[in-house]
Amino acid sequence: MNQVWLVFFFLGCIGPFSLVAVSPGTVNVGAIFTFGSINGRVARIAMKAAEDDINSDPSILGGRKLSITMHDSNFSGFLGIIGALQFMETDTVAIIGPQSAVMAHVLSHLANELHVPLLSFTALDPTLSPLQYPYFVQTAPNDLFQMTAIAEMVSYYGWADIIAVYSDDDQSRNGITALGDKLSERRCKISYKAALPPDPLANRSDVQDELVKILRMESRIIVLHTFSKTGLLVFDVARSLGMMENGFVWIASTWLSTVLDSNSTFPSNTASIQGVLTLRPHTPDSKRKRDFISRWNKLSNGSIGLNPYGLYAYDTVWMIANAMKVFLEQGNTITFSNDSKLSDLGGGTLNLAALSIFDGGKQFLKILLQTNMTGLTGPMQFDHDRSLLYPSYDIINVIEIGYRQIGYWSNYSGLSVVAPEALYGKPPNRSSSNQHLFSVLWPGGVTAKPRGWVFPENGRQLRVGIPNRVSYRDFVSTVNGTNLVQGYCIDVFLAAIKLLPYAVPYRFIPFGDGHENPSYSDLANQITRGVFDAVIGDMAIVTNRTRVVDFTQPYIESGLVVVAPVKKSNSNAWAFLRPFSPLMWGVTAIFFLVVGAVVWVLEHRINDEFRGPPKKQVVTVLWFSFSTMFFAHRENTMSTLGRLVLIIWLFVVMIVNSSYTASLTSILTVQQLSSPIKGIDTLIASNDHIGFQVGSFAQNYLNEELSIAKSRLIALGSPEEYARALANGTVAAIVDEGPYIDLFLSEHCEFSIRGQEFTKSGWGFAFPRDSPLAIDMSTAILSLSENGDLQKIHNKWLKRKVCSSQSSDSGSEQLQLQSFWGLFLICGIACFLALLIYFCMTLRQFNRYLPEDTDPSIGGSSRSRRIQTFLSFADDKVDEWKSKSKRKRELTDGYAREDESVDGSGRIQRDISQERHKSDGWLH
């Protein structure tokens, strides 16, 4: 409220006002604008036209007349305050304006106190919150939507950094803040903010100072958010500095389209702004709009062209009239009362009692916010945030003959070449594939999209840090006594930088004391401290480094591996047993016996080759089982179940036999190396010491990620130290990155890689966060990879003869049971099912026979006798049972009776033969 009391002080200082007498039948509305500005001139004509149109229809205000009193603030905040106070003395129901957000922040306090709504279509500061300023209403889309549109354009073209140039006032400053927020949501940023004096105070010297600074910066994407006088001055100075040429991108906010629409003579001078992109508030085509445009020349006498803010001025007046119509129809009256807070102040010469509160202001504001009308600008309706529904903009590309429209932006569907109103009936689609704009003619007359940044031509060379290595100097090293550097990483960098479409001056700066390899994490941190502009070398891309710098595309793969001493495994008399593990041998032997036994059971009753004395049958089972390995068994299988089991088993034998042959061939023809260390898992489970290279990220990874105690980790500086430490047992193994290990093993064949790489990474060049140079260098590295140059550089420095004896240990060559358990499981299930089916059939036959032989006089009902009888039944040959069954039927047909002295076992044998005869047809 301090601003309000300051206003009252001004009121007392200037003395009494010249007031206008207003009749009771008049609805007073004030308008505060700078009528010397483009928007002020257009707004005056449009508001006067709206006033005349409303007053020509008596039904709108019930016979009352709308009176719009206009006050010219003439770019002065003080005069704007005076105008507002004058309106508050004349029973004004609403004020259109102010034109600037600076005055809106001040006058909104006055409106809140006196309940007089402020409606502005040009003060579009996004920080004018309806919570803080409930009586301030923006009747055009505020700058938050405009900045969202610009952010989406920047993202659409794939740029990352922009420079913002703006007038240092509330509206421009807060608009740029909103732009920064929207850009960050799209992983873009404002790299520099150039603040100019508020419009129209900026002069050529102020503008030139800022543009010279910008010219020395990397980014070439410039967003200009200001007003017409300052904006045109910026473009004029930029042209003189060569900043309107090829490579630059200029995006202007809506002020530029306003100038283009309203100044009919300006398009002939568009050479200074050719290629600029700008936004224009989108207003849908309609008959009312076309009719109004046709009236405009008569209304303006050809003095100025119509722009969208003239349409918003016209609609704002109609919004007030329609709201007042509803207000009066609801039985409300236009009355004002004194503010007790002001009356109690008393004393002095301040004429505070003249200021009055609009009694119906709260109700009138509510009706205004419920507006639902269609005006010249399209639907006029507010959402819950008091923003107009469906805010949208035309995207304009300034060309030599004027300008052309390349698309639209709407808050509903983003960027599109289709008018927004045509999309409102469809579901919103903001996917990247649905964002489209027409081609653009960029500054300099080019159609190819500018890269968006250049290496600044400020005379400073790119400071490139390199590790001052004392080992593995094939990767990067300095030539003794000179400033020359060489190595694999250096050659890759030089080849990549030659592919850039611009010159990059650079100089190499070694980092390290030259006595031991430097810490690569410290080397990366030098970028954040501003010591280096880039770091190249054998630097792995790991998580903690990516938090502080950006890396290029990896130019070589790298991952941690384990190296340990190995010994040769020589062949011996028992080498033929090595293809299979002991468990595999045992399970295979058991299955040979099991399958032989199963086939014997299934064939015993019907196949003479599986019958005979027990000793002979045991030999038959063993012979049949093991002869299947060579497919040389002489015994034929006769039963269906037996053949099914044998087919499955022969398939298993074929797979096992082939695998054994292949593994044995490899063992006997390739020299094997063995070591108790199988990989990183072996080291984690042990308490052995582990070596790592000084400066490598391996130490932190082993300690922090794998929880290996630091006391077990020993730093080593060179390949010679590696070899000595492994040979004398100081360390059990070395953990280092793959490229180093490849060089090490090329000269030390007594060591070998154990297991697999347990990290996946790569080496890249490091640059500051969000550096465009990192992106361009990544593209260059990909080009080197695709054309084969990267491989040529690799062969030049890193291609070595690898020891032919290096191979995996014999233990890893053994075939384990886990590779075959599926086959054995299938075979076991087949054997089990065959035995189960056979047992059920035999038991069914036996049960069908037994009731016919029941005799109470025979004590054969005991369990042991039943089992003995079943076994005797199962052991009997089918042919014998059939013959006995036939004799029994002949005796039965002649009503012959067996002598009572015949023992029970003979009777059982005859019945068994009968049952066998019944089942013979199924078995065969």
TrEMBL record:
Disulfide bridges in this chain: 749-803
Pfam families per the UniProt record, alphabetical: ANF_receptor, Lig_chan, Lig_chan-Glu_bd
InterPro entries cross-referenced by the UniProt entry: ANF_lig-bd_rcpt, GABAb_receptor_plant_PBP1, Glu/Gly-bd, Ionotropic_Glu_rcpt, Iontro_rcpt_C, Iontropic_Glu_rcpt_pln, Peripla_BP_I
The keyword Transmembrane belongs to this UniProt entry's keyword annotation: yes
Source domain of life: Eukaryota
Bilayer topology annotation: Multi-pass membrane protein
Signal peptide: 1-21
Transmembrane segments: 583-602, 644-668, 820-841
Protein keywords: Disulfide bond, Glycoprotein, Ion channel, Ion transport, Ligand-gated ion channel, Membrane, Receptor, Signal, Transmembrane, Transmembrane helix, Transport
Record domain Ionotropic glutamate receptor C-terminal: where: 463-800
SUPFAM superfamilies hit by this protein: Periplasmic binding protein-like I, Periplasmic binding protein-like II
Name of the molecule in the record: Glutamate receptor
Lineage: Eukaryota, Viridiplantae, Streptophyta, Embryophyta, Tracheophyta
